[in-house]
Amino acid sequence: MLFEAAARKDNQEDHKTEEEEELLGRLQLYQEVGRREPVQHFCEAVMHGCSKLREFWLSGYNLTAGCCKELSRVLITNQSLVNLDMSSSTLGDSGTKRLCEALRQPDCKLQSLTLKHCNITASSCGDLSSVLCTNHNLRELQLGGNKLGDAGLKFLCKGLKHPKCRIKSIGFAKCNLTAACFEDLSSVLCSKQSREELDLSDNELGDRGMKLLRGALEHPNCHLQKLRLSGCRLSEACGEDLTSVLSINKTLTDLELESNNLGDFWLRLLCEGLKHPNCRLQRLGLKHCSITVASCWHFSSVLSTNQNLRELQLGSNYLSDAGLTFLCKGLKHPNCSLRSIGFANCNLTAACCEDLSSVLCSKESLEELDLSGNGLGKRGMKLLCGALEHPNCHLRKLRLSQCGLKATCCESLSSVLSTNQNLTDLELDWNKLENSGLSLLCKGLKHPNCRLQKLDLSGCSLTGACCGDLASLLSSSQRLTDLNLYYLEMGESEARLLREGLEHPNCKLQNLSIRMITVTEEMHQELGAVKNTKPDLNIVLW
Questions:
Q1: Domain presence at residue 32
Q2: Which run of H or E residues covers position 182?
Q3: Which residues form the domain of 171?
Q4: Are strands 538-541 and 340-342 parallel, antiparallel or unpaired?
Q5: What pTM, to 2 d.p., does this model score?
Q6: Which of 39-43, 88-92, 124-128, 307-311 has the lowest mean pLDDT?
């Protein structure tokens, strides 16, 4: 907790360091199990001693009427505050009403407000709509996970269409909406006010709602750039609607369609829209969309045609090695501009790694690759590592979670780490690497050529015996800033070793997450004591 930061008086801080400015600029509170922080008193401290505060994250708190009153005062008195996140707090309708009173005041300069999962209902939407009509500063409003319903959305749409409303990004994910509300929402998108981002995920949109939405998305006044429709019960019947949108709308750059039962027939229609010269889409999310190998040839054609697409997520579709072979042909095409691609849980085996390796060796634009949840094993890893050491490979982020890797794979990976000077983010969680595998990895991680900054080793069957290697790594690596070690079996003596590595002057770690199988008070004290010498190090201990 950062109460001390808020309680400092500005007149006592004439010469703040950059770190202090950052601390005052961002303040984050999370509710811990079995603990209730005095939020009301804390807000008083923020109001009187932290005029530089720009971001206030208050998540999961049990808010009383007094807390809401003090928060409202903060919004009015602290004119530096531009971002407030109260997700999963017990704000409710009564708290929302009090908050809206402050949001309507001219002194409130808030630009982003997140109220996800705050027990807000349709009865609060009139007050929120009033805020949208009067607050000229608010640019983003996130209301996901609240039971607003179609009636609540009708109220909000009145505010969104008001000439003084400046909202650019709005989120209605999981708000109990149905196709009936999309006539009102469509009129918002067709209004002259510019909307850039809209999240409708996990609502009963259906094919009828998609047809109404199509009319708005094709309207010349619609300037939406980012649209999320995950889990909206779309089916093959809406294929023509989306295809038409992609061939007409020239502003849409990010489309998320995850968890809709779209199928191969729909995807073939979508590909026609993606190949249209008017299509400006840069990111497309299609995880869990019932796509099979039958669609991969069509998608390969898109990759060799569309020069705008930068990110493609195809995870959790049954593509198999045969489908990936088709896709790799498109990925290697000179016209393909993809920088990030996801194949997590696509039923791939080591056999596909030859094709993937060919892509990595020839496509310098590719920066991120997700292969999590595929059984690549030692043979697949050996092929991939050969490509990762190729001078043309510019991959920065590689996800290999749950890929059936063992300690025997780590020698090849260690060689990559000591050779590849582009890789900065590596996820190896939930592979049985064990202590012997970590020992091999540390050799590469300590090499002067290694540029890795983020490493995830959660669930890798590590025990306390590895803490010597970890301490040695932390005391020598000049690049590593983020380390995840969930499910680490460690004793008090090993915790002491890890502490020594963290306290070493050469340790550059900024974030450490540890979830231990057995945790004692002594271990908490050992690792907690690191904050005395490394106050900027963020340690999350489970």
A1: yes
A2: helix 182-190
A3: 1-176
A4: unpaired
A5: 0.91
A6: 39-43
